[in-house]
Amino acid sequence: MDEKELVKRAQSGDFDAFSRLITEQKDKIYRLALKLTGNREDAEDIVQETFLKAVDNIDKFRLESSFGTWLYTIALNNVRAHMGSRKKMTLKPIEEYLPSGHSDENTHTQLFDWGDPHQLFEQKQLDQIIESALAALPQKYSMPFMLRYMEDLSVKDIARILKLSLPAAKSRILRARLALREQLAEHFREKIDEKV
After folding, report:
1. Which pLDDT score is estimated for 74?
2. Which of 20, 115, 126, 131 has the fewest C-beta atoms under 10 angstroms from its C-beta?
3. Is pTM, for the whole model, over 0.70?
């Protein structure tokens, strides 16, 4: 049975159909909530609130997007409501992120997971550094970035979920990338300076 058929059945009161729809999305919504909140309990609350709102509003779902995209929208609204306005770093103007002539863009570092404990530890540290840098961004930039690069959604779906124009969604993803690149470069510069 395809998603549209499951949605139609769920809208007519078939709770088994709704449960199947939810089961397919539960892990994705939890991962997203966990990434955005950084807290398992908050993430679990957001998942529960998301599914309760989905049950209450399934009859309003118009099949204009996928069921998963609709759930992401509900989840993100719940995250916003749950987190409120936390103090975040302010972003610099985009011009300050542009290269100043001495770019290292041709330098790429590749990390391979061959099961080496040292490399696994380094990867875990890098993941924590990235998560920390991402958490410092305002939500209006971190959410589109996470949806694009961690949840692998298209920019079009992100724009729809966040109720943005396509250019605005692209701009926010770019600003987040640039800010993260600067944060990571600064972090590694500090680490090198400590060793010298």
Report:
1. 92
2. 115
3. no
Q: Cα separation of 194 and 144, whole Å? A: 34
CA distance 33 to 39: 8
Pick the CATH number of 3-83 from 1.10.1740.10, 1.10.490.10, 3.40.1010.20, 1.10.240.10: 1.10.1740.10
Tell me how far apart the alpha carbons of residues 34 and 129 are, in angstroms, rounded to a whole number.
Answer: 16
Count of CB atoms situated within 10 Å of the CB of 52: 12
Question: Which long-range contacts link 94-99 to residues 24+ away (Cβ below 8 Å)?
Answer: 94/174, 94/175, 94/178, 97/175, 97/178, 97/179, 97/181, 97/182
Residue 113: CB partners within 8 Å, gap ≥ 6?
119, 120, 123
